[in-house]
Amino acid sequence: MPTPDPPGLDLAALPPRLGALQREIVECRRCPRLVAWRELVAREKRAAFRDEHYWGRPVAGFGDPKASILLLGLAPAAHGANRTGRIFTGDRSGDFLFAALHRAGLASQPTSTRADDGLRLAGAWIAAAVRCAPPANKPTPQERDDCLPWTAAELELLPNVRVILCLGALAWDAALRLRGTAGHAALRPRPRFGHGALTQPAAGPALLGCFHPSQQNTFTGRLTPTMIDEVLATARSIAPPIG
């Protein structure tokens, strides 16, 4: 049976190579542990979602193909994006993130609840360093390495990206490794992750750090709406949307 197109993505509206890449991503079975876990979760489901159909596949990137800002997270949540098929959709992290994107003028609405809810991004593209939901939300180093080429290929087809907004330390690490796949020199000394950390290399997109919008961070006040608004304002100042 053919794999369905990524939910909520109008592939016909994307540049042909980018649309074709999204179809390739959702067919990936490269990491046996991740394949087994994402499909197990999709079969067993959470009680609150027992009547829903889970996506249960790799999650493609989502957004504006003219994006000047790439938001990079770690991996889909087991009952969030692994359920809905759209990155950062269907969980509390996404609730916090999309509300901020809407305030920044980068999202057409403040909520992302399902893949066909009409949400559109303007000037931004969202992806994950690992495309399948991992057990305990912890992909192995090998799984991170195996998945990195998908993000590298996506970034190559998003020619207007000027800044990668890294949502968490592992996304920051992935963004630094992406430089190597693009043929850029490693940065020395290696930039350290932190909220608001910014590095603007001579070649390649700038890297901007933001604490991950997990409940652990947002419920404790480690990441507040004001803090993420300030980071998004910095990103927009570096990479204004393409008209």
Give your account of this protein's structure.
The protein is α/β, with parallel strands linked by helices and 243 residues long. The protein has one domain (11-238): Uracil-DNA glycosylase-like domain (Uracil-DNA Glycosylase, subunit E). Helix content is 36%, strand content 10%. It has a six-stranded mixed β-sheet with strand order 1-3-2-4-6-5, sandwiched between helices. β5 and β6 (206-210) form a beta hairpin. The model has no long low-confidence stretch (mean pLDDT 94).
Task: For the structure shown, list the relevant keywords.
single chain, 243 residues, alpha/beta, Uracil-DNA Glycosylase, subunit E, six-stranded mixed β-sheet
SSE topology:
Elements: H1 16-26, H2 32-44, E1 62-63, E2 69-73, H3 81-84, H4 92-103, E3 124-128, H5 141-156, E4 163-167, H6 169-181, E5 198-199, E6 206-210, H7 215-218, H8 225-238
Beta strand %: 5-15%
Number of helices: 8
Going by CATH, the homologous superfamily would be Uracil-DNA glycosylase-like domain
Q: Indicate the CATH topology.
A: Uracil-DNA Glycosylase, subunit E
* Overall morphology: globular
Helical fraction = 25-40%
Sheet with the most strands: spatial strand order: 1-3-2-4-6-5
- What is the count of β-strands? 6
What are the secondary-structure elements, in order, as H or E? HHEEHHEHEHEEHH
Question: Gap between N and C termini, in Å?
Answer: 40 Å
| Tally of distinct domains | 1
CATH top-level class: Alpha Beta
Runs with pLDDT <50, length 5+?
A: none
CATH architecture: 3-Layer(aba) Sandwich
Major sheet details: 6 strands, mixed
Average pLDDT, rounded to a whole number, is 94
The structure class reads alpha/beta
| C-alpha-based Rg, rounded | 17 Å
